[in-house]
Automatic annotation (TrEMBL):
This is Transposase IS204/IS1001/IS1096/IS1165 DDE domain-containing protein. Transmembrane segments: none annotated. InterPro entries: Transpos_ISL3, Transposase_DDE. Residues 4-55 form the Transposase IS204/IS1001/IS1096/IS1165 DDE domain. It comes from Streptomyces mordarskii.
Amino acid sequence: MSGFAGFLRRDLDAVTAGLTLPWSSGAVEGHVNRVKMLKRAMYGRASFELLRTRILTQP
């Protein structure tokens, strides 16, 4: 546990900002997760163009 606490102390500005600022990167993280899921599902099965089309057309 001391390793984790030490890491938080070293990055205290980022931790403070993450807990106090009114905005977050949650929406971006959701889109990144969706793209990674699509890439995993289509790995080795289709062309880059089909992957690109699926990423750009799905909500």
